[in-house]
UniProtKB/TrEMBL annotation:
Name of one Pfam family that matches: PilZ
Protein name: PilZ domain-containing protein
Originating organism: hydrothermal vent metagenome
GO MF entries: cyclic-di-GMP binding
Classification lineage: unclassified sequences, metagenomes, ecological metagenomes
PilZ domain location: 6-92
Length: 98
């Protein structure tokens, strides 16, 4: 499956950092997840995480992580299930404009 490269405009750099994130789930609740950044660019990143993610879902990166200089949230562009979780491509949400 090569969907990770179909529409990418920026070069991604390999990475091996762990991050925490939250995401809204049913009934107004919030789920907390852990992810490993596999690659990163100025506009997005590829991750492997412990929670299932769906296309167009917004996730919020935990702000108290050391050296975090990226946008506070991202949107899932693609995802697929793996043996131990989920692999996903995220696009950073750079502004609140709709």
């Amino acid at each position: 499956m090569d969907i990770a490269h179909e529409k990418r405009h920026n070069t991604r750099t390999p990475c091996n950092e762990e991050i925490s994130f939250t995401m809204p789930v049913d009934n107004g609740k919030t789920a907390v997840g852990q992810a490993r950044i596999m690659d990163i660019s100025a506009t997005g990143m590829g991750i492997v995480c412990d929670l299932p993610l769906n296309k167009d879902q917004t996730i919020y990166f935990t702000p108290n992580q050391p050296d975090w200089e990226l946008p506070p949230k991202g949107i899932v562009i693609w995802s697929y299930k793996e043996a131990k979780g989920c692999r996903a491509g995220l696009e950073f949400i750079l502004s609140e404009a709709k």
